[in-house]
From TrEMBL:
Residues 135-376 form the Radical SAM core domain. S-adenosyl-L-methionine binds at residues 213-214, 245, 267-269, 344. Belongs to the radical SAM superfamily. RlmN family. This is Dual-specificity RNA methyltransferase RlmN. GO terms for biological process: methylation. Reaction proceeds by a ping-pong mechanism involving intermediate methylation of a conserved cysteine residue.
């Protein structure tokens, strides 16, 4: 399968700010959303709306089809649902998509959406980022699970943003619905002219929970959302094509495998506790030996279902050949593959990306040791959509406002400021 490249030379194509197609206000300010409910919860909602118990299963299947196969976001489009039931559902529930604050398209075709959700107790609307990465033969959607993050991994931009709240299961699922809308991946919606997408097969072939937040700190909502995304009468995403990435919340790792059956990725980045305590501070609570034990016990892992270990390449920090050797030694006995990620810088970041030669030397060593370790080509760097670069737009703005005010203050103090 190849990637369609109908656009002008992508190297010269500018970043595109696309207008939002959806309502400008955030959907369902006060109403609960039917999106992201489990089948049982959706059945309860229908019964509450007056559907007789004996029709519960049939009506649930009907709605499920409209929501996840047809992708409708308006009750009035549900042609085979009675007008009366549609009206009752619309009174109490919403199925609207989140507001799109911005949609940016990178020169390499990566798309980043800044999405706004209602406050739901957080005091103000919240924003998160979702990223679509088209590649040869696949399209990966990187989904967020929290607004901000409590963890403070020092190489990660999200880690500089405090946690505002967990996303609901509906908000997690609706990132996928919205991406499918915008990519034309539902019936009756066309793919935008010139979009870079896989030329055959599903436009979103893989989902990774590697966006903002630590998914295992939002366990229940993530489990429910993954149940919806993998339901084979709806969005129908194979569990083998869904990857949950954790920084190492050890007590929840095995349970996550049991309850979701999805693939596991570990945000590893260091081969000794001293350095990992600094890069991924949750390591102080759950050190490497505990983390690796949890990986050994991850349900269903095998050579055909390997655990991915993500390793960001930081110049002179974790990129020596000695580190590569220790990495290989450390992963012995675990069905593993290693993803080497060239560090993606962000404003204020403390690290530099390793030199390319060094990344290749490191990759050669781990490859020869039997770990498939593709170097993840940086994608979407120009729109801050690459690994570790996500941060909500409002936070970015606040930060740059603070920086502007600080510069103005310095100018004023030095007598150079304008009156
Ligand atoms: S890497 Fe993940 S867990 Fe760590 S700060 Fe970033 S979003 Fe949070």
């Amino acid at each position: 399968m190849s990637v369609s490249l109908d656009l002008a030379d992508p190297k010269t194509r500018p970043v595109v700010e696309a207008p939002a197609l959806h309502p400008v206000r955030a959907g369902g300010e006060d109403k609960p959303s039917l999106i992201g409910m489990s089948r049982d919860e959706l059945g309860d909602a229908l019964v509450n709306a007056g559907v007789p118990e004996k029709q519960r299963r049939m009506r649930t299947a009907q709605l499920w089809h409209w929501l996840y196969v047809r992708g409708v976001s308006d009750f009035s489009h549900m042609a085979n649902v009675s007008k009366d039931l549609r009206a009752r559902l619309a009174e109490d529930y919403t199925i609207e998509r989140p507001e799109i604050v911005t949609e940016q398209i990178s020169v390499d075709g990566t798309r980043k959406w800044v999405l706004r959700f209602p406050p739901r107790g957080a005091g103000r609307p919240v924003e998160i980022e979702t990223v679509y990465i088209p590649e040869e033969g696949r399209g990966t959607l990187c989904v967020s699970s929290q607004v901000g993050c409590t963890l403070t991994c020092t190489f990660c931009h999200t880690g500089t943003q405090r946690l505002v709240r967990n996303l609901t299961s509906g908000e997690i699922v609706s990132q996928m619905l919205l991406a499918r809308d915008r990519l034309g991946d539902f019936p009756d919606i066309d793919t935008p002219a010139g979009a870079i997408v896989p030329s055959a097969g599903r436009l979103i072939s893989n989902v990774v929970l590697m966006g903002m937040g630590e998914p295992l700190y939002n366990f229940d909502n993530v489990v429910t959302a993954l149940g919806v995304i993998s339901d084979n009468e709806g969005l129908s995403m194979s569990r083998r094509r869904i990857t949950l990435s954790t920084s190492g919340v050890v007590p929840e790792i095995v349970r996550a495998g049991e309850e979701t059956g999805v693939m596991l990725a570990i945000s590893l980045h260091a081969v000794n506790d001293e350095l990992r305590n600094e890069l991924v501070p949750i390591n102080k609570k759950y050190p490497l030996d505990q983390l690796l034990d949890a990986c050994r016990n991850y349900p269903g892992s095998s050579n055909a279902r390997r655990i991915t270990f993500e390793y960001v390449m930081l110049k002179d920090v974790n990129d020596s050949l000695e580190d590569a050797k220790n990495l290989v030694r450390m992963l012995q006995g675990i069905p593993a593959k290693i993803n080497l990620i060239p560090f993606n810088p962000w404003p204020g970041s403390l690290y530099e990306c390793s030199d390319w030669d060094q990344i290749e030397r490191f990759a050669d060593y781990v490859n020869q040791a039997g770990y498939a370790s593709p170097i993840r080509t940086p994608r979407g760097r120009d729109i801050f959509a690459a690994c570790g670069q996500l941060k909500s737009e409002s936070e970015r703005m606040r930060k740059s406002d603070r920086e502007r005010m600080e510069s103005a203050r310095i100018l004023e103090l030095s007598g150079n400021g304008e009156a």
